[in-house]
Amino acid sequence: MASEQSEPVKTICPYCGVGCGIKVQQGDQPGDVRFMPWGEAPVNEGRICIKGGAATEVVDHEDRLTEPLIREGDEFREASWEEAYDRITEEMERISEAYQPDAMGFFGSSKVMNEENYLLQKLARRYGTNNIDNCTRMCHASTVWALRTSLGAGAMTNSMRDLREEADLLWIQGANPGEQHPIANSQYFRQAVLEGATVIQVDPHANKTTRSFEIEDTDRHQHLQLNPGTDIPLLNIVLTTILEKHEDDPDAGWIDEEFIAERTEGFDDLKETLAEFDKEEAAEQCGIPLEEIERAAEKYAKADNAAIFTGMGMSQHACGVDNVQNEINLALITGNLGRAGTGVNPLRGQNNVQGTCDVGAMPNVLPGYQLVDDDEARESVEDVWGFEIPPEPGLTNVEISNAAGSSIHGLYIMGENPVMSEPDANEVRERFEELEFMVVQDIFMTETAEFADVILPATTWAERSGTVTNTDRRVQRMRGVDKVHENTKHDLEILMEIGSRLFDEETFRFEDVEAVFEELRQVCPSYYGMTYELLGEEGLHWPCYEIGDEGDPFLYEDSFDTENGLGQIEGVVHQPPAEVPDDEYPLTLTTARLEEHYNTGTMSRRSPTLNRQHPENFVDVHPNDAERYGIEDGEYVTLKSRRGEITLKAQVTTDIKEGSVWTTPHFAEASANVLTNNVLDERAKIPEYKTAAAEIDVG
Ligand code: SF4
């Protein structure tokens, strides 16, 4: 059936958290969905990276799920939506009666829009459990914890635009925007540097970010290539250097005494923590000459406006909260918060990673980060929803997977692929075998969907409408073209149907996606001042507490959103990774993503343009290690940890330090997460993806 070629619609790239605007156009045949640049898009002004340009390639991919599937033994058979809905509601009712509502877990997704995540968490809570989480647990849970506790909000303090225009120094630690946020890097960070800003990059791996800042004036670019897992010692050297220099010359502007006195607490605690700190020993742990780190400390302290960017190299550790707290300490003692061009700014990985948390798809908070165990907050949401919310925080997603087959018997997954994305993947597979019931909504058959009992075919990003919230808190609208496959459904339609069948129409049936956003506004204070009309084409940076609020490009101008309005300084000490090299596993494995692929590869590996760039996984090995093991560049090797092994190509390079190896999580046939460690940060429950002990077998 031919459809008419339509006017292009303005939407948002489905990949990283930068939130670039693009257009999509429905061609004259169903499935002919074309990418078009959007020249005036607010974030990217028409520029696009390779992923964004290739995003429409997967919309009509031959692997798309087009009909509901129901398991029969080891096979799946096509089923009607009616049969699929009946099976899901029967099983969910059975699990609740046989055990209790907490025997179900729900996974939202940052690939999915605000309205859809909002409705999924509402469904979980109506079902009677707070066991709802999403993949941001895996990337920035520790960042969110530290920022919320010490400053007030788990989000970028500033916006990309004010940083480009006002920052004199960019401190990029554990983030690789050249690879992961290419337009932010090229259009904002590199522009700032070309106009005179200095950049300090702290990363164990030399990468596209490193190379993008290789400019002639080398004194304005420093790469501190530390050993994996030594971010706290490195920042403690920076902090100690600044405190010592201030002692020597109190008028030289090393710290901001007025800011510390008026707007923070805990400075004495920091000084006490660092009183006996041994900088020489710490520099050895980091594997960097002390004077290099001291030089970087001086640059940060002396910059008029210094901005910190933080990524998963900081957050994905068992000490992730402390890693980010130490960045906050640095910003607070130097007064680099509360004005344009400064702050502590997490770079988020997926297009709605901020919004998924904002709308409450987390086990401990309701929409707007209102604590689920706060009676007043819960009651205010209950007044709108019309049902009681369980008061106890639920399990996080790794905890839910760990409990599969013991206290968790059913799993509802929307757009997530935990078999690939969670650490110790072989163990995850074994646990999922033990589940009594699993439903997956997705666009493709994923490694996780293979364990499901019911698979529901969802529409892609290009076919749906709603909102997403990008890395700098900008809420933007997405708009969809016609469905490519008649019998697929939008995630929102599916959730409305299941909620209405399990409970009642009044709570779960909405006229359209905008009506869901209207309800979200009522329960999410920082979104209250936004409507679809006000979002327009530019979007708005939250918070917008009232209609008419224009949103804040930077937070905390007058005070922090903590209980007493003060920024919390808290000294932290080095905690070695849970697994360190030994005789059996003498290497340190660290992991990160590639520009051309996206997380578990579900979409990007089906994109011919992207997959051509990197069709298979590889491991970076330092030349000295390669010589010791007898590894040739391009040779296949077996990379092993205590949890499993994968076979992949070796790339011999000085991009990684001797004693460490580096690989990626995108490739199902050789996934880094077969090797990674399932140890969690105690508070934020984020896994330690970034360090594990490893060994290589050759031949
Ligand atoms: Fe998409 Fe991110 Fe690339 Fe922009 S930078 S086009 S949002 S992947």
Number of helices: 27
Class of secondary structure makeup: alpha/beta
Task: Spell out which ligands are present.
Answer: iron/sulfur cluster
The domain tally reads: 4
Top-tier CATH class of the largest domain: Alpha Beta
Sheet with the most strands, sense and barrel status: 7 strands, mixed
As a percent range, the share of strand residues is 15-25%
Which stretches are poorly predicted, pLDDT < 50 over at least 5 residues? none
Helix content: 25-40%
Q: In the CATH classification, which architecture of the largest domain applies? A: 3-Layer(aba) Sandwich
CATH topology of the largest domain: Rossmann fold
Distance between the first and last residues' Cα = 55 Å
> Which strand order do you get reading across the main beta sheet?
5-4-18-17-16-6-7
Shape, per Cα inertia axes: globular
What is the count of β-strands? 30
Briefly characterize the structure.
This protein has 699 residues and is of the alpha/beta class.
Would you spell out the secondary-structure blueprint of this structure?
Elements: E1 9-12, E2 21-26, E3 33-37, H1 50-53, E4 69-72, E5 75-78, H2 81-98, E6 104-107, H3 114-127, E7 132-133, H4 136-139, H5 141-150, H6 160-166, E8 169-173, H7 177-180, H8 182-194, E9 198-202, H9 208-212, E10 221-224, H10 231-248, H11 257-263, E11 264-265, H12 267-273, H13 279-286, H14 290-302, E12 306-310, H15 312-315, H16 320-333, E13 344-346, H17 353-358, E14 365-366, E15 370-371, H18 375-385, H19 397-402, E16 410-414, H20 418-421, H21 425-433, E17 437-442, E18 454-457, E19 466-469, E20 474-478, H22 491-502, H23 505-508, H24 513-523, H25 532-535, E21 540-541, E22 567-568, E23 587-591, H26 608-613, E24 618-621, H27 623-629, E25 636-641, E26 644-652, E27 660-663, E28 677-680, E29 687-688, E30 692-698
Parallel strand pairs: 6-7, 6-16, 8-9, 8-12, 9-10, 11-22, 12-13, 16-17, 17-18, 23-27, 24-26
Antiparallel strand pairs: 1-2, 2-3, 4-5, 4-18, 14-15, 19-20, 20-21, 23-30, 24-27, 25-26, 25-30, 28-29
Helix pairs in contact: 2-22, 3-22, 3-24, 5-16, 6-8, 10-13, 10-14, 10-16
Bound molecules: iron/sulfur cluster.
Organism: Natranaeroarchaeum aerophilus
EC number: 1.17.1.9
Protein name: Formate dehydrogenase subunit alpha
